[in-house]
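Action item from last week, closing it out:
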Amino acid sequence: MSTNLSVPVWEILDQIDSALNADTPFDEQIQSVNHILIEALNVDAIWCKSYPPLPPAACGVVKTPLSMAPHAEICLSDQGCNGAATGSTLLDKAVAGQRPLFISAPEDGHFDADLGDTLFKTFGAMPTAIIPLVASQTTWGALVTGQTESGQLSAEQRSLLLLLSKHLATTLHQRHLLNVARRHTDTFATLTQIAQTITSSLDIDDVIQRTMAGINTVLDVEAGSLLLVDEHSGELYFKITLRGENKQITSFRLRPGEGIAGWVVTHNQPTIVNAPASDPRFSSKIDRAIGFTTRMLLCAPLIVQGKPIGALEVLNKRSGPFNQTDQNLLVSMAASLGIALKNAMLYDTAQARAHKNEVINQVTTAINAGHGLSDTARLIFNQLGRLLDFQHVSLSIIGSGKTISQWLFDETGAHAANDPASIELAGSKLARLIDAGGSYVETEAPATAIFADDEILRAHRVNSRLTILLDTGGQPFGALTLGHRRPNAFGPADVTLLEQFAPHLAIVIEKAMLLDNMAQHTGELHTLNRLSEMLVSSIDLPGIVETTVNMLPKILPSDVQGVAIAGEDGIHLGLALPQDFAQTEQVRQTILATLAEVSQDYNPASASAKIVAGNPPVSPDWTPGSALSLPVLTHYGAEGVIYAAANRAESFDGNFLRVFSLLVSQISAAVENARLFQQVEQERARLASILASSTDAVLVVNRSGRIVLDNPAAWTIMGVSESQRGRRLTEVTRLERLINLFNIAIRDGETTGEIPLDDGRTFFANLSPVAAGAVGVIGWVATMQDVSHFKALEQLKDEFVSTVSHDLRSPLSGILIATRLIEQVGDVTAEQRELLDLVDRRVRNMGDLIDNLLDVGRIEAGMDMGLEPCDISEIATEVALTLAPQATDKGLALNTDFDHSLPAVMANPYRLQQVAHNLLGNAIKYTPSGGTITGRTFLHSNEVRFQVTDSGSGIPASDQPHIFEKFYRVKGEHVTGIKGTGLGLAIVKGIVEKLGGRIWVESVFGEGSTFTVAFPYQ
């Protein structure tokens, strides 16, 4: 027996999908699927049964044996199907094993515990196959096929049955997931509305009614109630009861602990009762009174501030028994409703505090608008005056050296009140306040200032004070003090109010100080950057010393600054001193002595000094109370020293040391740079005699584009008769190719290229950067060799190859014609046909090779190179579309990012198409299945670029210099079996260079390759 495939399989699958998506009851959908299957499978009977979590359904269709109605069918739906498996029938066994069961002979017993076997036997049908409908390891149902005549399904029927069953299982699974998603979406929308109701209204009755209605809808129940605890009697009374959408008022009460709700409140935990009649906690008196039957219920406590104040109860879920998910939802709603009740209770309290908080918020917002400390101090003084009565505000801050800095705040800003090093934290009033913690109130000023940090209060005649600690992250960093000349000016309310502001004041003051520090650091970095820019242009030691000594007073705040750098011609010394300074020689000797300590190779007697007298004046008896020196270190050792001194006996803070270190690093780099240039000058003289006799041209250009070194061979290339050192390259030669190569090297680092001369000679140039340690690139060097002889040999070889290629075309054509004529002069055996096909393929491969060789010759001769404006992105897009099927067949992802807004380039469209085709084709050829190929076009450095990146095997570093040579092919296991002539990349390189462009490759063996083609545009 065969299947009925008058309708294509895809159309049968579509009919099944349409039946299951119809807006009809589930058992009718299954019945429709039965009609489709019985016709498609050409069987006499179909029985289909679903299992949870799908709705339970069992439906069958049997063709009648009536001769008068051969197309009549009997349909049966089992409305009482429970969807459960008993394990005793053939259907149960197949479902339990989740494996198809094909029945070849009649078997005794039932194949189904419901009506399926009855339906089959009534019409003389026997089951032939039982197929579990399994998807995602879950059995969603089962199909049973039957025949009225003994026999078994054909192989064709079995294959189709398995295909349709798999699709039916997947569709049932998707239908279930879609229904679950819809239910979750509806539930989420309802819960969102409930949450919005709770959070948007303070009318508690409205919130309760709308919440209860939402709960009834989400849980799909017949009724729901909110019961609250009477605070006086402890009884539960019904706050609201909803049956459907109707609100009911009931005066019934439950004694403490009575009923399910009483138990939930007493034990403060939710419960599910799906059989209340058998639960001893259940009280039926309310059901009897109102004529309602409670078949199942779910109850959760209503908790406010950890105490149960009532219960939420829902009754009779329409879609089945309550489960843990329902309980979790009800508990969540009870918690939200508890929050709503709590909000209502707090509303009045919040209203009372609103006005005061509004003023506090205004003050807080105003204070927060400050920037630096001075601006913030002005705002604090003015805004706190709206809430408190005071005449004095001062700030004490703990410094990094455990000293106290103090500022006075007034309506104009902040003013430093002391020398930061004059007050030690140890033994101060601030230290005692930190130990005690909290605020400090003093009603009368002491007769004398006991603590050093209290002197500021005595100086301003403060008789009563209020001090609060300032801390962030639990760590105190200072204190704010309010003062008044009147005794007993501050009371407990003032303390509470100021303590309320303390956390915010701490954050605002700390932020202001950070902003001041940031501004200071920004200024220091700006000055350091300016110094760095000036030092970069200084290549001699006297210039470095002069630049440094002029900038030192702006970078290192102290009384005296100095710098000493040792060179081959002696020591270069620079001093920045106060006006009318009397200790110049003393400072000079100190710096030279320090230099002698770090380096023994220099003679202090050879020092020459540059003195700048512009620092603020100091007392005539000035002595260096604190001094700091750091050596100037290079790769050659200590070559100098930087010095700073002040008359105060203080240790320089961390920021000073940080700036000092950065300064020394910059000067060290500048000194080393100067050394390098000096060495270059010395080495240039030594190399001059060697380079003068070299037949290879050498040309060195610095970062300014000026020639640093050139030998006579280079003079010949540039067309001059003497050295051009010191002049710009663009001023001494008209060789655009040479200038362009240097421009490319400056941009890309390294490059190579040929430079043709007017006399017919050709030089091959190799350009690379010249680096000097940490300084970076200081110039570029070009070495150029005369390759005219090699070019001539290459031309002879190309002419020979071209001649041979032309001569081979005719015999090859004759061979192809002969292989075709053999068939016309007699019969050809299969073996002869195979040999003729082999000859044909080999001759065509040789023809392709010859065509490529001739194409190389035409490209090198400049043939077929008519130029016109070309859109490289459009050409690349067409090639990518052509090669896309090859990539797909090989399992490759071909991605494109072609920018169609790029300017046009002057090129030959056919040749550009060859370039794109060869590069993309090579990427497809050398990339294993599963890889990725990306083609893109973009603009970079006045060039339009076409780039192809693949994730293939990559190119070994040793092969990369040769891949553009004719007939060169990379060898290795990673390219075994990949055929080619070795001419593709040579053709690409020839086209690109003839069109005035460049091509290069970047590749990591084992990771992939990137080929880039660049064309200039106007």
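Closing note: The longest strand covers residues 307-317.
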